[in-house]
Amino acid sequence: MSGYIGEFTALLFLSLALGLDAFSVSLGLGMQRLRLKRVALIGLVIGVFHLLMPFIGIVLGQLISSQIGHLTTLAGGLLLVGIGCQMVFSSFNHQAKKIIQPIGVGMFLLAFGLSIDSFSVGLSLGMSGVKTLVALLLFGVMSTILSWVGMFLGRKVRGFLGVYSEILGGSILVAFGLRLVFG
Fold first, then answer.
1. Chain segment 63-96, per-residue pLDDT in tens
2. Closest CA to 111 of 102, 120, 98
3. What are phi and psi for residue 93, nearest 5 degrees?
């Protein structure tokens, strides 16, 4: 019985660690003027990607080497840097239309970039024999909840920071993307 509790606790902390990435980026996203329906949808999409990417990693873990994890992490980091830079630059030019917004394809690109590290975790989990369904559900639920919390806190901070909130939000995305790229 204590083995199951220990495994569940380890998976809970791992899902919290993966979800904190989504939280920090969502904090920046929440500083944009997003409607509550959009916040709910973004959180759900991020959660689904945090469920799907480790699943794909677990399935492909037997077929590919661990070297592919480094390439996907680099791609995800560069994607987040690009989105963050676009947010910062568009905050200086209020007439410029945003290229990437957290709607449509932009929302899926954002969720993909955030869940890249979950793919790498899935690769290693596939070889360790953990309870796959429990791990996937924890990853999805935790990242969804932390995304929502981050966006709601970002909405509150936006009121305090005013015009500078979009610069801060973009800076958070750039910083997280650079952390993925450079470790």
1. 665 556 566 667 667 776 876 777 677 667 655 4
2. 102
3. -115, 95
